[in-house]
Structure formats: structure tokens, C-alpha cells
Protein: Ferrous iron transport protein A
Organism: Merdimmobilis hominis
Amino acid sequence: MTLREAVEGTEYIIKAIETDDEEMDAFLFSLGCYTGESITVVSHLKGGCVVSIKDGRYNIDHQLAGAIIV
């Protein structure tokens, strides 16, 4: 399942990042979003979702959310 289908408020463990775009992969890694890290969807928005990774909250679009497998 990707973050697009994730339930709000539930903590998940990232199983994989599926993207061929190195820039997107590097961006997610800079946020602390990598395999084995926990992630929580705070809320789903029209253009994406708000996620909590470590001590930060980030707004990511549907393309990024679809690349994160939990």
C-alpha cells in the first residue's frame, strides 16, 4: 500500500521508495523518508497529504505519496 491509501493517524514503517527519479529520491531522503523509518499521515489534502517523519511535518504531493510504500 502507498501513502495515498494510508489511514490518517496510523503509524507505518516505510518498506520501499519506488521512483526512478534520483532528484525525488534524494529529496525524500533529505526529509528522513527512507526504508525502515516510521511515517504517519496526519491528514489527506486535495493535492497531497501532510505526513509526520521523525520530529517534522511535511506536505507532500500525490506523486511523492504514491512512491512511498508502507
User: Anything to note?
Assistant: The first strand starts at residue 11 and ends at 13. The chain is about 20% helix and 35% strand.
